[in-house]
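Hi support team,

I'm opening this ticket because the web form for multi-chain structure prediction keeps timing out on my end. I have pasted the exact lines I submitted so you can reproduce it. The total is 892 residues across two entries, so I didn't expect it to be a heavy job. Is there a limit I'm missing, or should I split the entries? Thanks in advance, R.K.
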Amino acid sequence: MSELNSLPKRQLIARLDASQENFSEHLASLLAFEASEDEAIDSTVAQILADVKKRGDAAVLETTNRFDRLSANSVTDLEIGQAELQAALASLTPERRQALEMAAQRVRAYHEVQKNECGSAGFSYTEADGTVLGQKVTPLDRVGIYVPGGKAAYPSSVLMNAIPAKVAGVAEIIMVVPTPDGIKNPLVLAAAAIAGVDRVFTIGGAQAVAALAYGTATIPQVDKIVGPGNAYVAAAKRRVFGTVGIDMIAGPSEILVICDGTTDPDWIAMDLFSQAEHDELAQSILLCPDAAYLDAVSASIEKLLGDMPRHEIIRTSLANRGALIKVLDMQQACDIANSIAAEHLEISTENPQHWADRIRHAGAMFLGRFSSEALGDYCAGPNHVLPTSRTARFSSPLGVYDFQKRSSMIFVSEQGAQSLGKVAAELAYGEGLQAHARSAEYRLKS
Amino acid sequence: MSELNSLPKRQLIARLDASQENFSEHLASLLAFEASEDEAIDSTVAQILADVKKRGDAAVLETTNRFDRLSANSVTDLEIGQAELQAALASLTPERRQALEMAAQRVRAYHEVQKNECGSAGFSYTEADGTVLGQKVTPLDRVGIYVPGGKAAYPSSVLMNAIPAKVAGVAEIIMVVPTPDGIKNPLVLAAAAIAGVDRVFTIGGAQAVAALAYGTATIPQVDKIVGPGNAYVAAAKRRVFGTVGIDMIAGPSEILVICDGTTDPDWIAMDLFSQAEHDELAQSILLCPDAAYLDAVSASIEKLLGDMPRHEIIRTSLANRGALIKVLDMQQACDIANSIAAEHLEISTENPQHWADRIRHAGAMFLGRFSSEALGDYCAGPNHVLPTSRTARFSSPLGVYDFQKRSSMIFVSEQGAQSLGKVAAELAYGEGLQAHARSAEYRLKS
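Hello R.K., no limit was hit. The queue was backed up. Here is the completed structure from your submission:
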């Protein structure tokens, strides 16, 4: 990113033109992000995992008391009961409680439709010879949700992770959330109450991931762990993958806006800010065929930035990772969007569906001028846990399907075993697997 | 497993009783399997990945020539053209070719039903205020399939990995298969021809995974890599996860048989062999409420083992990891099966569906006496790539859904933005994200 860093200091965000020579190299360097692999973190995490696996509750208690400056006497003391969750909910202002409940209701409604539409009923079909083939779909038994403590503690994430699991039919949801110095976030606990989380433990870091993955005397073993966390949590999730399921390891958040140049430029500037305010590494990019409109958005950025409480974060994010890009036309904007495969894609145009039909890769698409990403982050209904760092090329929003698994069902009739047995035996002999062949041949009538 | 190893030498397979004290500890030690994490392999793999990422074709060519004892002049020389694939197909005996084509046709038919039933069409619904929510489903652009060389080169695996990708609509499938000393397996090449693989390169190991994950001048970058491989391949897949998608890292294969004691004991013995012959680490377990029947299966094992060409592997596998387990009744058998969460579960009973309804965790269920696992391995239709090592608790057979991804679709109407905007702003202020709040508030009518 040396070229971007050498831009004049007063420019708040890079300007690029897709017709420039070397544009694709520019774009590639702008998008380049590699999660740092810190050997020291990884080796600390390996030790904590091994310790919790071996010593269970004792290891969880010691590491939690040490890292979070607590003085609990047992892991049981670290559990928050349902009464405390309900008390947190009751403590909210009516406006905030109503907003959280409406968001939960809409997220639930969307995921219920998703459940019905994603093949949750399984299927089965019968062939002419009586052979029945199909697929059975079942929910996971028990799921762990990691919720970060401190500055990145988002009640909306509790809803987005817990509700699809509940809708899928997961019997038990265990939430873990660290409470450094014993400070609890009432909004997070209220969200847990609304989402129907079954048990909450105030533990975090690699020790929490280990406890969920291996189980301890007090904390039940789960089948999958979802939810965001810091570098220690990410390293721990990578290491327990296989013992339990995990969701994607998220990179910095991204927004890509395609605009035809007729949306209020203040709106688009604020949409870019809304991503940039998350984190210095967050990425906000605008594609537009109208150079004068990019000037207008640039002016809006300049005008509005000073008023934002998180202006320092926004300024760094836009300067290092943002861009306003002039494209030839809307088709080129769609081509570039497919190569970026953004987490969030706003299509702020007339007839947005026309352009959405040309997009193959995006975590979520926000169509039309009124669909700001912020609405999707909280309450539109679809999940806000989305694939980052170009992984939308091969992965999906968190959904009901992440809390279900499938089993193939194979009933071969006696008649079916006659034709299938001959084929299987022929191929098994070809692979040198004679017991496979004989097992099929035993079912043949002599 | 010290207790199992101390069994009398002549016993071919352990006998357990679920009513014994310490049965659950016995079972846990029998199931225990940890993939060895070899630091030396991992560091070699890290070097190869970095080298291919940096030097591209040159690194792929050098490592392939060195490890596989070839003397190719360029990576282009390592590509097998469609003509050679077709020639391999033409070289098969008519019986073998017909068996391969029938297997492919049945696998294709099953996965086409699966595609129709798993929500591939996406969905969309409109709310009263005109807001439209939904989900778009699209295939991956390009997929890489790893096929091992040497003894574990299975044409059936080519079909099982490539056909679901084709059915999903993946535009390009790149297969890699190492050919140590230049020896090609015509059955594998024929299977690639039948499955519609687009390009084949004779490369393997970490260098092949790196080439697919990063792309080189000759080998295109893919979006996901699937298929089994040795420890180097597994380590490389773990490391490139995130840059590309990967399938599960498979452990040793497993069969669990639940039998009511009325199936021909020779059939069940051979079914246990068919898993054990894969690999010394493979696992074959039988659950039955009838002790006399377990004696009969034990006698069948003794009688039949000597005739099996792979009897040494079978003997080791059964002795170290197999078991015949007496259960109280069929319900207990189902409970144990749920705790084992086997890759393959045969329910060899009268009215097998009755018991299948009680199973929550299994990769594939084979119902009834004629549904031997071997039929499913080759040609029943469902996929033979299945979750191992208890991962059926949270993961699924390879399927069309592994080659598709979803995008959320959010169109908020002007009217919808009024109610959603207030909720989003309230929650955004609660999380301290003011740009999110302002972005939502801009869409409110003043």
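A quick check on our side: Confidence is low (pLDDT under 50) at residues 1-8 of chain B. Let us know if the file doesn't open in your viewer.
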